[in-house]
Write a structure and sequence with these properties.
heterodimer; A: Rossmann fold; 6-stranded mixed beta sheet; 9 helices; 10 strands; 36% helix; globular; B: 337 residues; 2 domains; two-stranded antiparallel ribbon; two-stranded antiparallel sheet; 14 helices; 4 strands; 74% helix
Chain lengths: 244, 337
């Protein structure tokens, strides 16, 4: 395995990471690195392997080969729960909230490993306010709208005060106003120093907030660069954005 | 008025059941008191299912096996010597059932066995344990000099004796009631604790909890061990109360009835489980005493109806309905004021 540099200012380094499901090669020799405080987007057509990369980073799927380095530490073989405790957090593609429980119960489950019991209620209030769902009261989560569930999940992901936040399609299924607010929220979190890696299909959303973009195609890195470089790359337009 | 709003029907019902339990011996015969002691013992088996299925989301058909292990351990240790070893026997009964569940849980949850197979494995455990005990009728099957007895089981098991005080009749009734309500209140406390929320998180989504930093396999294993110990405690008290233990104590039938009682009440609600166990045990006993052999048929029909029309459980739905009516009444009063 190649010896790669993992300077401390890199929050995340993926070194030739691959994932196979039986005979299907979902991700192949994918390498990528992110600086601390970076806001990067991972794009690609459906089935390109974006969510698989996220799940390998979080430890849901073990990588078939390659190395994952988080804040200078090789985390390739450690469990998902240990990775979470090391400071990475995720909002999943399908809202990963506990639907049968209430809003505050969800927040409590997300926060209680990281926040002292005495400050728990206060911290939950702060996070709920941050994602603008404080006026909902304490409903059962299954009665909340899709957008509200998305924001709740972001609040839950923030409860561990992570160094790296992974957002899998944060704008999916949202209306224009909701998307606008989500873009503001993500930008504001990034401005506060949080490193964010997100997957998104909505290119307007990506254009609005991403500094750097990595393009994944058939499980391989296809292109990488600033948002302007990517949207003007003929090859990317061809495979992903379409000729229009 | 604000205080009234915080009173919920579940709490009121629990208080009424506690009062009923305390005053029951004052108005009933020694026979009835003894009968109800057995019903309260069964509540511990239901509680063990609430912990593992209702709170942690792991479906188990094996609780009767742990119940039986507790019962047999108490019986064997207390019968093996002329000395009073009943307290030691009780402690060992709980410990061995708990350790057995812990070891089984370790292999299941660290081995990544999914929910459906957990049900199947625990079902097999009950069958294996019962089959094993059934074939111990030969004289070679002795533990600490106590013949296990196969189908006939063990009889003349000593009552629980603390010092020179033997727990029988009303003292045993109050002891069992105290144990049941102590555990009931621990459950209610657990519901609002960090540990409780960790269990609920694992129940609702194991993967999501893992991603919030929970060691889910460890949580499931410990919960399974604790539920085994709780069922074991039920078995110990059953042995001490009834004075006998037979292989059917460990049977799948026994597990199934407990699972059904919990499902009927509402698997996430410990008050419901307590009440349903008492009601079901009482009516089964009454039906059996009247020569009716259809108690399980009635239970089955009730289960189908409740799963179809009240999937959260009959008593949970009832608590919700009463609370809604109560809130409506308070709202109307406020408006009028």
């Amino acid at each position: 395995m190649a010896n790669i540099e993992t300077p401390k200012e890199k929050i995340l380094v993926l070194d030739k990471v691959s994932k196979q499901f039986g005979g299907i090669q979902a991700v192949e020799d994918f390498s990528m690195s992110m600086d601390k405080g970076e806001l990067r987007c991972l794009i690609g057509p459906n089935g390109a392997g974006k969510t698989t990369v996220f799940k390998m980073v979080m430890g849901v799927y073990p990588a078939s080969s390659g190395r994952i380095v988080f804040q200078g530490e090789d985390i390739t073989s450690i469990s998902a729960s240990k990775r979470a405790r090391k400071g990475m957090s995720i909002k999943m593609q399908v809202p990963g909230v506990y639907e049968e429980l209430t809003l505050r119960e969800n927040m409590r489950i997300a926060a209680e490993n990281y926040v002292p019991k005495k400050q728990l209620s206060e911290e939950i209030d702060r996070l709920i306010e941050l994602v603008h769902i404080q006026d909902l009261g304490n409903p059962q989560v299954k009665n909340m709208s899709h957008g509200q569930q998305q924001w709740l999940e972001i609040a839950m992901a923030l409860a561990s005060n992570p160094s790296l936040l992974l957002l899998d399609e944060p704008a999916a299924g949202l209306g224009p106003e909701e998307t606008e607010f989500t873009a503001e929220l993500v930008t504001s979190l990034n401005k506060q120093g949080l490193s964010i890696l997100f997957i998104e299909h909505d290119m307007n959303f990506v254009r609005k907030i991403a500094n750097q973009v990595t393009v994944l195609y058939y499980g391989k890195k296809f292109a990488e660069g600033s948002i302007d470089e990517i949207v003007n790359d003929e090859r990317v337009i061809q495979i992903y954005l379409g000729n229009s | 008025m604000k205080d009234l709003k915080t009173i919920c029907s579940e709490n009121i019902t629990a208080l009424l059941v506690l009062i009923f339990a305390v005053v029951f011996p004052l108005f009933n015969s020694a026979y009835k008191v003894d009968q109800f002691t057995g019903f309260y013992v069964t509540c511990l088996l239901s509680f063990s299912i609430i912990l593992i299925w209702g709170y942690t989301g792991i479906f188990s058909f094996g609780q009767a096996a742990f119940y039986g292990i507790g019962a047999y351990t108490y019986a064997i240790i207390s019968l093996c010597s002329d000395k009073n070893l009943t307290v030691l026997a009780a402690a060992l009964g709980v410990a061995i059932a708990g350790i057995f569940a812990l070891i089984l849980g370790y292999f299941m949850f660290y081995g990544g066995v999914n929910e459906i197979f957990t049900g199947i494995i625990t079902l097999c455990i009950s069958i294996v344990c019962e089959t094993f005990i059934v074939q111990t009728s030969g004289p070679e099957w002795q533990i600490l000099g106590v013949w296990i007895g196969g189908y006939n089981g063990l009889n003349n098991i000593p009552k629980l004796k603390v010092g020179n005080f033997s727990l029988t009749g009303i003292p045993l009734y109050f002891f069992v009631v105290a144990v049941v309500f102590l555990i009931y209140f621990l459950f209610r406390k657990l519901t609002h604790s960090n540990l409780g929320y960790a269990l609920f998180g694992v129940r609702e989504s194991k993967q999501r909890s893992e991603l919030f930093g929970y060691k889910t396999a460890k949580i499931q294993t410990l919960a399974f061990g604790a539920s085994g110990a709780l069922a074991g405690l039920g078995g110990v008290l059953f042995s001490a109360w009834s004075g006998y233990v037979v292989p059917s104590t460990l049977s799948v039938d026994n597990s199934t009835v407990a699972v059904v009682m919990v499902a009927l009440a509402g698997r996430k609600n410990v008050t419901g489980a307590l009440i349903m166990t008492l009601i079901y045990s009482y009516f089964t006993h009454q039906l059996a005493a009247s020569g009716n052999v259809f108690s399980n048929v009635i239970l089955g029909v009730l289960l189908v109806l409740i799963v179809m029309f009240m999937p959260e459980g009959a008593l949970v739905e009832l608590f919700k309905k009463v609370d809604a009516l109560f809130e409506k009444a308070i709202g109307k009063k406020k408006k009028a004021a």
